Every structure is written in structure tokens, then in C-alpha cells.
Amino acid sequence: MSEWIAVFKRGLLIDNPLTVLMIGLCATLAVSTKVEGALFMGLAVIFVMTASSVLISTMRRFVPELVRIPVFIVVIASFVTIVDLTMHAFLPDIYTFLGVWIPLIVVNCLILGRAEAFAYHNPPRLVSADGLGMGLGFAVVIVVLAFIREFVGSGEIVFMGTRLIAMPSWYRGPGVVMLFPGAFLVFGFLVAAMTALNRRLAARKVEPIPGCTLDEGGPS
Amino acid sequence: METLSHFALLLVGGALVNNILLTRFIGLCPFFGVSNAMETSIGMAGAVLFVMTLASTGTWVFWNVLLEPLGVGDFLYIPAFILVIASLVQFVEMYLRKASPGLYRALGIFLPLITTNCAVLATATESVKPGFFKMNVAYSFGFGETLVYTLGVAIGFGFALISFAALRERLEVAPVPEIMKGTPMAFITAGLLSFGYVGLGGLFGL
Known about the structure:
- Chain A is mostly helical.
- Chain A has helices at 2-14, 25-31, 35-58, 68-90, 92-98, 109-117, 124-154, 180-203, and strands at 156-159, 162-166.
- Chain A has a domain at 2-145.
- Chain A contains eight helices and two strands; from the N terminus they run αααααααββα.
- Chain A is globular, with a radius of gyration of 18 Å.
- Residues 209-220 of chain A have low confidence and may be disordered.
């Protein structure tokens, strides 16, 4: 159990997919202009990530190495189709906002990257921790980024049609935050903040997990 | 439409004005992943150029010969294209492992990740379904146009990646505040580069 928690924490903080490993960035920077869109994007990724990596991990003994990538992709594409159809049916507004980025979860480097580097070499129990941790790490960062960009850029947070908080009415946000370069700049400062946080955690000493190579494709 | 200037505009539009990395956020993982060394970024740019050209032309043929006549294109194109791209990447991986083990090791996990490089899927899809990624193109590409446009996008990708790698090498020795060292500074740099590319919008009426 402690191993499970260690892997989970590792995904959430120490090896956070966005701020440390820096994979899965495209969708993050593109949809983080609105909090509600970012939130549902995060949830979709948590679901696809956990489900597909557990399934891949259970089949890892039957999948030959040479065809592993097409197999991974087909598994991931099926779960993305589930999310795609569900969201289209129940959350049409958010589906329109996320648009092409829902089908593009299939090619989100985060999910295939973890399948390749972790799920293919580890038992399902640990893989579920990795999927949940990495997915949650992704979701938290994307929501925080969207919060900063929407709040600073447009001066208010609108969630499911209701306005949650707003700046005073004289506030005129710098529009650049909502544009492409702004996403890079805000994310840069966010990464700096996460690095600082991780350093303070590291100072409290977190044991590395023996036998888990996280960043390399090689078998552990 | 099939004039030289039309093709030149497609090339410049794909490479600079609609630069896939810095103005459209597509394909960012290798952009930050491999750009900390010049050699790997040149390798990556070459691999992307190769795979992207093969993938776009391959999927264009696949779409026009199989999917469109059968009328299943609209809901089957993503799995179909992904499979074509994944098999291509696997092929490139096997070839590189034999032909150039040094480059193979240097690219590491990023070679299989070309499959999930949104840039490849995006460009392939764009060639058959214009407007998919909010491009200002209102008609489907012919084969020649697909080839030229993909070359443009891949060159733009390589150009942005290599220039960014050069900037990052200089940043190594620059006096950056301790907490901003490494990736945070890389993002700020990318943001500033992106300003430059966004400023190109409207060039030649593109």
C-alpha cells in the first residue's frame, strides 16, 4: 500500500506530467482559457489515463514489443471515443468549447508516454496509482493555469453559466494573457512556482521507489 | 490555383505565419523535450520532417481512395489516420535502430512519441479536412498542395525547434534567477519567440 501511495504522489507532485516531465502540453496551453473547459478536460484525461493504462498493463504479457504502439493507440482511442460520445450527449456546451481537443486526447503525449514508460512494464495495481496520480497532476495544473488566465485576462470566472467571482468593474484585463504568447508566459511562472514547491518537499526527503524507472522506455 | 505563387504562399503560410508550434500550440512535447541539446533537436526535426511528409501524403491517399468513396470518413478518420501514422513511426524506429543506433538512443522516448505528436495528426487531418484546426483555408488540398503544405509545416517546426534549441544553449550560461533556471525560463523564452511569430500574422494576407 505504501508503494501505491508513493507512486501516486510521484505522479501528482515529483514527476508532475506538466510542470516536471513536460508532456501533454499542447492541450493544456490551448484549452486553458476557461476554467470550466479546463476542469472537464482534466476529468476526461484522468478517466482515459487510468482506464487505458490499467487495461494496457493487464495485457502487457500478450502484446509483442514490435506492435505495442498501434495496440496502445487502439486501446486509448476506444476510451477517448467513450468520453467523446458521453460529453457530446450530456455536456454539449463544453463539448463545443473543447472541440478538437477531445479527439486529440488520443494523441496526448501524456497518455501514450505513460503507457510506454510505465504501464507496459508494471503490474496493474501500481499502474492504477500512476494513472490516477498523473491524471490528477495534469488536472490540477491545467485548472490552476486556466484560473489565472481567465481571472487576469477577462476579470471574471464564469462556471456553468454563473459568475463565481469577478474583479471590480473598472478592471480591464491585459488581453495578452488570453493569447498564445500569454499562455507560455503564465505557464513559465507556474512551473517556477511548482519547482519551488517541489524543492521544499524534496528538502523533507522523499524516498525514491526502487525498481521503477519512470522516464526511460527500458524495462525496469 | 495551381500556380507557383500559390505554392509559395502555402509553404510560407505553413512554415511561418501559421507556425505549428508557436502560434497554434500543436506538437509542444518534443519542442520542450528535446530542445536542450542541439544535436537531438536537429535529429528530431529531421525525423518529424520525414514522418510528417510520409504521413500526410499517406493519409491523403488513404482518405481519397478508401474513406471518402466509402462514406465513412467523418467518424472513422481519427482511428484510421492514427493507425497509418503509428505504423509509419514503428517503421522509422526499426530502421533507425539498425541504421543509426546513436541517433536512436539520443531520441529515446521521443521517437515513439512522434506518433502522439499532435503535429503529425493535425497536419494530416488538415490536408483532407480544412478548417479542422481553424485554418483560413476553405477548400480541400490536392496531392501537390498537401505535399507542399506539409513540407512547409515541417520546415516551420524544424526551424522553430532548432532556433529555440540555440536560444536554450545560450540560456545555460545566462544569469537567470535561481528559481527560474531551466524549464520556467524556457517557457518565458518560448513566449517571447511566440510574440514574434504572432506578429507575422497578416503577412502576405495569410
